Amino acid sequence: MRSIELFAGAGGLAIAGSKAGLKHTAAIEWDRNACDTMRLNKSCRRSFVRHAEIIEDDVRRIDFREYRGEVEIVTGGPPCQPFSIGGKHRSFNDDRDMFPQAVRAVREIQPAAFVFENVKGLLRSSFANYFSYCTLQLRYPNIRRNGDEEWVDHLARLEEYHTSGPKRGLQYNLVYQLLNAANFGVPQRRERVFIVGIRADHGLKFSFPTATHDEDRLLYDKWVSGLYWEEHRLDAPSTPPALLKRRLARISMELPEFMLPRWRTVRDAISDLPTIEVGARCPRTPNHFFNPGARSYPGHTGSPYDQPAKTLKAGDHGVPGGENTLQLEDGSVRYFSVRECARLQTFPDNWVLEGSWTESMRQLGNAVPVNLACAVLKRLAKQLNQVPVT
């Protein structure tokens, strides 16, 4: 099944799509460092982008009509800064809002389905009207905004159309859900909104995948069975945190054989990587080297070894100090290496990031976790493969 990816970034969604069985016709991205990353990996014949045309351009200049009939799925992560909790919250007044371009791509390509993902800030109550506007445009992409029409007036027209009875023409059945990456085997607490649309004339059903990993199982393996510490050849702490006692009492009464696999931790993800030290590099492990200057400060502390990492961030002006650091046993912190961050985003080890340390970290901070996106795309591909796509 052929796809095209918009706002491709460092390739997280492209890798996920390939793992789900999609063949990428093209990947479009304006940032040179991110395109360099994809071009490098394509030159190394990484299967995830082997057949994709890497297009370094502003998506606003792309004529998507040439892809109509050539691709079945449109995917992408429209730039999230306008909706990010860490951003400036300008939403529809921000020229970085690329949802209108995502809608245009759907209108011009008319794919069988689309998948767009974004930060959880998109669901903030202060953005409720604009999020409704985005989803209604995706449901009815041919109901276009007229010239200099205000978005609220366009929203009103879309609402009237949506409630006016039976429809004809291009339309999509759409669902969305906020998913936590930790529930899908990603060693990071990272929540992303996924919007999935299926062309209405296909008559297909879709529901989001259910969790494959469980926080309670991690707590059980740490504080009831002790298996977590045994696997890492560590002495178990003498007592669990006091705040967990009531929860652990409940968990210990459940039958562990019916639990899902446990949440993965930072230690699960990176403990087998070589130790990095000041001034040292690991030539056999790409993107794995020490970067100095890490510090924590109130409200921004490092990720503990034995929990999923905190949400990695890209930052408007370089990498944030606290969130992209590892909290060491002595209480100090150090920056995660680029390779460690790639592990925390479930990128494959042979996927090499191009650009400076800051640029590589920004690529990863903006990326969707591979395993999370793969779960959604596998579910969608399974449904679409039930009928011929035209």
Description:
The protein has twelve helices and nine strands. The chain is of the alpha/beta class and 390 residues long. The strands form two sheets. The protein has a seven-stranded mixed β-sheet with strand order 3-2-1-4-5-7-6, with helices on both faces. It has a two-stranded antiparallel ribbon with strand order 8-9. The longest helix is centred in the C-terminal third of the chain and has 15 residues. The protein is globular, with a radius of gyration of 22 Å. The chain starts with a strand and ends in a 6-residue tail after the last helix.
Task: Report low-confidence residues grouped into runs of 5 or more.
Answer: 84-91
Please indicate the percent range of residues in DSSP E strands (runs of 2 or more): 5-15%
The first-level CATH class of the largest domain is given as Alpha Beta
Which structural class should the secondary elements be placed in? alpha/beta
How confident overall, as mean pLDDT? 89
Integer count of domains: 2
CATH architectural type of the largest domain = 3-Layer(aba) Sandwich
Describe the sheet with the most strands: 7 strands, mixed
- Can you tell me the CATH topology of the largest domain? Rossmann fold
The radius of gyration is 22 Å
β-strand number: 9
Strand arrangement across the biggest beta sheet: 3-2-1-4-5-7-6
CATH homologous superfamily label of the largest domain:
Vaccinia Virus protein VP39
Helix content estimate: 25-40%
Shape: globular
Helix-strand pattern, N to C?
Answer: EHEHEEHEHHEEHHHHEEHHH
What is the CA–CA distance across the termini? 12 Å
* Tally of DSSP helical segments: 12
What is the subunit organization of this protein? single chain
